[in-house]
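We treat protein structure as text, and this decision shapes the records that our systems exchange. We quote a single record here, exactly as it is kept in our systems:
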Amino acid sequence: MSNDTKKKGLGAELFKHFNTGISYFLPVIIAGGMLFSFTLITGTVVDGQILPSNQFWQNVYDIGQAGFSMMVPVLSAYIAYSIGSKPALAPGFILGYVANNPIGANGISTGFLGALILGYVVGYVVKWIKKLKVPQDLQPMMPTFFVPLCTTLVVGIFYVYVLTVPLNALVQLIVSLMYQLNGTSAVVLGLGIGLLAAADFGGPCSKAATAFTLALMSEGFYGPNGVFRMCCAIPPLGMGLAAFLLRDRYTKADRQLGISALFLCSAGITEGAIPFAGKDFKRTWIACAIGTAVAGGIGMLHEISSVVAFGGIVAITGVTQGKLWYVVDMLIGAAVIVAILFFAKPKLDPAELK
């Protein structure tokens, strides 16, 4: 096996484990985010902080906050689980929590990035320990006692004394770069976020963008999250509108798909565009990628920000800055998709339209 093949295999393996962590992580963050959104129905946002209107909504907010507190340990735990199976869960949860809270003499917290790295380290350490030959009498105790204990202790000490400083330096570098974002650089970031949101219609690329924007949100940067949540709704919105506005290019069955796409776009479910991509992948992908990227670029210019981790129009209560632009830029992106398809997609024969 060549070195290039091995590198591709390792990259695919790491990405698979990452996606497993994200798939378990997303329901936690969505549940917490939805509760934040409910709180905002009557509450307000001051300096990025949600202020509930009464004690009942304060309780709802606190439950949602518990979800946000759990998201980083869950990510770490299930990346570790994907690699090392059940014995990796306990150390993954514990060390994910450790990464998200100050520790050591300098009280360093590496947050999302630290938990991500620890998930991999824990997983591979557990996988290695499980291969060790141990006496027959000790084998029943390995998965529930020795493996979690040794992994948590060894990796935890390694994290505190070795990993915290370089990881913290990397986090601070990212924070510094985000503070410097303006004008062209902000547009470029928005273009990238929009492209990732549409690249595979809610698949691994979109999940990578989710992780990136949530990592920034955990550091206090809500703009990329707001733009990404808007972008998630644009492919199904654009395709739904195209199916109805370009009636000589789409069939009656396509318009039924368009209705579904419009419903799904309201909740920011990018997968609503997949049926159209299945029928005409090249034109659909190009139109959605360009339209969503354009909207992402102008969304960053308009400084759209959101504190909730889901998208579409139902997430409007979580938009703390640029509510109007959130809707306008979403419609602009959808309009670009329709315009591209108007010029690129050929008209159907009258017999095919029935």
Notes: The chain is about 70% helix and 5% strand. Strands lie at 44-46, 49-51, 305-306, 319-321.
